Fold each of these.
Amino acid sequence: MQSLKDLIRNAADIKKQDDVEIPEWAPGVMFRVTGLPSGDWEQYQNKLSKMTRRDETSGLEMTIRSNKAEIVAKALRDQESDELVFTDLREGVSILSKRSAGIVNGLFNLVKHLSDDDVDFTTKVKRAEQDFADGQS
């Protein structure tokens, strides 16, 4: 019997969605979009806001930045090979930053959904409890 640690390590809990078509970019081509592991999502969240010090008299200034292109570049895959479309993250961000904001935002929202970041913790617990109850015989 596997230990709890091994069960967690081996869990296939990263969601994905196949058959994502982006006709404006590649008509007839199907992409796979994946959720991100916790470490990647947390790294992105930490980049969203950063503290910067302007000078002694002005104190701290909050700078907010969002790089949805980075998340999309980490999650967009060739459906047939399951390879990342952008194996070079910087290049992917550069390319996606120049594409339609609506398309990139839509893909970002899909990644956010697949990463379970669009659901609050209480709802996640209720879903898990329901899934557990449904699996009991």
Amino acid sequence: MKAIEIRDHRPEGKRHDRKFFKRIASAVAFTLALATACGIGWYAGARLAYKQKAAEISKIHYVEEGETLWDIAAGMSNDDQDIRKVIYDIAKLNNIAPDADLKVGQKIVIAK
């Protein structure tokens, strides 16, 4: 009986074994983990910067007994400003209706 010899005719550099694929998978996993960590860091930093900027440009007003948005807007509007626009801006900034009933002690954010 004659023995048959099977040879691999691929060039030496083209052989891929399990170690090669494991290295590729590890590199891909590392790259994805790094990209995810950078994305989370960027998102958290952007949120913090936004909150700090919002705190710098806004002021909190605590509602007193019988006070309305009209009263709050009248105290902060200029003579050349339409008070209805100031009321609208305050209502929009606080996600409330311009004619909403305010509660004593409620925090109202007003722009400086």
Amino acid sequence: MLFNSIDFAIFLPIVFILYWFVTNKNLKLQNALIVLASYTFYGWWDWRFLFLIFLSSIIDYLVGISLSKQENLTKRKTLLWISIIANLGFLCFFKYYNFFIENFVSAFSFFGTEIKPNTLNIILPVGISFYTFQTLSYTIDVYKRKLEPTKDFVAFLAFVSFFPQLVAGPIERATNLLPQFFRKRTFDYSNGVDGLRQILWGLFKKIVIADNCALHANEIFNNSTDYNGSTLIIGAVFFTFQIYGDFSGYSDIAIGTSRLFGFNLQQNFAFPYFSRNIAEFWRRWHISLSTWFRDYLYIPLGGSRGGTLISIRNIFIIFIVSGFWHGANWTFIIWGALNAFYFLPVYIFKNNRKYFDVVAKGSYLPTIKETVLMLFTFGLTVFAWIFFRAENIEHALSYVSEIFSKSLFIYPSFQQDSLVKPIVVLLFVFIIIEWLGRGQQHALANLGLKWFRSFRWAFYCVILFCVFYFHFSGKQQEFIYFQF
């Protein structure tokens, strides 16, 4: 079920009414309703996906129970590895089986040996990368004794399958989300209203910004040999805003929807394109995944405790693994490695712990230095996104080589030139609104609250009108991160 669909627009009010007016006096019934709603939401794509998420839930639930009864270190490690191997085994099979087979065949072909591979027509379960990491956080934290294992199977199912963030995050830690299923929840009007504002802004990001940018980005990337270097740069910029509007829009809708049901999820995007270096960018982009890799991979590998060379090794590992997490394609691995190279100078010169505060705090405009730093970081990010978006390495290199050719100095041209100017205007307005709200949890959190009520509601109505207009008049695009 898509957030930007009529199905979800009907589904959400029904679940909301049942949750607050039918099951509100019984916490266990509320949790059971969440499980039912979540499995309905997830099974809307393909009911067969439900078996896998249910099996993954059973394994980690039983491992958690067993860990609570086991004090022997060797046996505890065995239980942990059962969870890790089972979950990553599912992930690798469904997501990477054909990738490994094809590269295995290519390696043998390089040395002159031809073998016939047995590839499979595997359907990738939606959101498997997200809920796999979420449930793994549970068993790892229980193993480390950071979390008491739950004996409430329904609450655990609700934690793993919680429908607002099930498909594309945020990747919630068990230490944050799971305890919320055991606390009595009461409806908070102000929290609910702010949740609706966040949903509205998320829909605007997705339908108005991301989907419109996608039309031009797809046209340019899919036909990159037909365009000059300057147009290819603009295509990369369009994709840069597409993936941000698409993914952060999903997170905003997920977080806002969760707040309607009395849950608080972590912020997943903190205005990353206003970052002043690449370290700040990665503190602000897909925060739930970045911190997951930091806590469950980087730190266990030794983090920055083993000297410069060990730290550099660990940095490359987490960035490359992060790239591979996104998909079975060498372009994602190159994208991860490229970001690791970006990160190195920042780390070596000890600038990775700068810029924790919001840019231009207390001011409407950034300084010249801040502007230059943001533009430079944005430029690096745009360049890296080319590899992320390209179909393969050859496509990426061809795209980049054309950018750095003489055609870079030719005026940009588009197939539908008249449609480009409106999206440029929308992007300009979008950036201004994001800039004004950059210090908050989301752009509309405080924006307009001190305005006259008529102005504020007019502002919301304009955003809502844009959402409806582009939803029914434009070509809807699937959320990019559904493929991951």
